[in-house]
Amino acid sequence: SGHVQLPPPQNVTLMSKAFDMILSWSPGEGSPPDVTYTVRYESQERMGKWMKVPHCKNVHRTSCNLTCVLPNLFVKVRARVKAVLGRLQSPWVDSQFKEYYLDVELAPPVLSVNVEENLIHVNASFPLATCVEIFSWMYDLNLWEAGSEDKKQYEGNFRKNTVTIDATALQGNYCLSARSSFQSIDFKHSEFSQPVCVLLNQKG
Fold it and tell me: What molecular function does GO assign, one term (predicted)?
């Protein structure tokens, strides 16, 4: 057709990472360096209706966070991306379908640990986009004496709840670590967070 086309993006993948739903791709082979990308998505509720994503129009990066544009976190969606340069465009390349609720991948929470008197107060903060705070994210907490394999477990705490542990009988260096958990069709967990260690009841 004599119409010069840009190489289409490659490895177009819709994936969940750290509570987000992200479309990622790599430049087509032989793409000019200043090429930009435009993304759209389609939900199984409205097949054939490709919706624009304002924050992923003519962008230089090779990923697009779709978490908070998804109209329904319980419906499968897919996304597509094309390369654009001036008046040149590549063909669209489509991802596979994913559903946030089923396919979400978790990240470990970040612990904040506060010791007062003989109590340890533990809060977990989650790297969540506002639009997915509605789900009942939970966390499991482990407490153990540094160097020991014997872990005390506090399971199924709601995201915003503080866990308070009586440390009266504990002395020495104790460590805490947590993982996010989520009940969809089956139970999911993140990895455990990096341990946070505190010194308890040191006789001065």
Answer: cytokine receptor activity
CA 65, CA 24: separation in Å to the nearest integer? 9
For residues 52 and 39, give the distance between their C-alpha atoms in angstroms, rounded to a whole number.
7
Burial code (b: 16+ CB inside 10 Å, e: under 16) for 44-70 equals eeeeeebeebeebeebeebbbbbbebb
Dihedral sign of CA atoms 40, 44, 48, 51 in order: negative
pTM of the model: 0.88
Domain 10-99, CATH homologous superfamily name and number = Immunoglobulins (2.60.40.10)
Q: How many helices (H) and strands (E) in the chain? A: 1, 16
The DSSP 8-state label assigned to residue 46 in this structure reads G
Distance CA 95, CA 44 (A): 13
Q: How would residue 186 be classed by pLDDT, with cut points 50, 70 and 90?
A: confident
**What's the CATH number for 110-200?**
2.60.40.10
pLDDT in tens, 24-81: 999 999 999 999 999 999 999 999 999 999 999 999 999 999 999 998 999 999 999 9
